[in-house]
Amino acid sequence: GAGVSQSPSNKVTEKGKDVELRCDPISGHTALYWYRQRLGQGLEFLIYFQGNSAPDKSGLPSDRFSAERTGESVSTLTIQRTQQEDSAVYLCASSLELAGLYEQFFGPGTRLTVL
Amino acid sequence: GNSVTQMEGPVTLSEEAFLTINCTYTATGYPSLFWYVQYPGEGLQLLLKATKADDKGSNKGFEATYRKETTSFHLEKGSVQVSDSAVYFCALSDRYSSASKIIFGSGTRLSIRP
Prior knowledge:
The complex is a heterodimer of chains A (115) and B (114).
Chain A: E1 5-7, E2 10-13, E3 19-24, E4 31-37, E5 43-50, E6 65-69, E7 75-79, E8 88-95, E9 105-106, E10 110-114
Chain B: E1 3-6, E2 11-14, E3 19-21, E4 23-26, E5 31-38, E6 44-50, E7 56-59, E8 62-65, E9 75-77, E10 86-94, E11 102-104, E12 108-113
Parallel strand pairs in B: 2-12
Antiparallel strand pairs in B: 1-4, 3-9, 5-6, 5-10, 7-8, 8-9, 10-11, 10-12
């Protein structure tokens, strides 16, 4: 079946603008994660959704970042008033349940460049 | 808290050389351990995993053994190929934590010379 998809694949924006990134998880996957990967660095956890539970937002770096998920489907990550340090690849992953028990499947990422 | 420390790169080897990428972890619970690989221009994909002590994960000629006594999960391959050039991430997930998210190491870039 289809894997995790993300859109857009690339986004160039001006400092101060808002951006919205989209993730379509694998159908039936209850868990969804957002990560940020800065150039040459590892993955930085941002937010985690699991079914109808309250999301774990502990990784969001500032209140300019927010994310929503409708049920067990699409998720959007919104960055308001973008700054140059927000430039990174934003990765989405989904899994059947808890990552400790099931593999995470990653999307191709959205490369965000803030000028 | 939980953390992962892996060997800094870049690592450059000749084809058919033996590979070891070190990874050690700190965890309060009973983590599962993973190696993910990111090939140039592609997304992350799971390479192998181990869910309990002494388990050995293996895939595509790579192996890693979950060593609880040394809190390690080193990645090894007996004979590397040019196609193994990629960035490798060690990761852990503690299934008993309140939010079971995977914690990634900083990644090790591997380059294989023909």
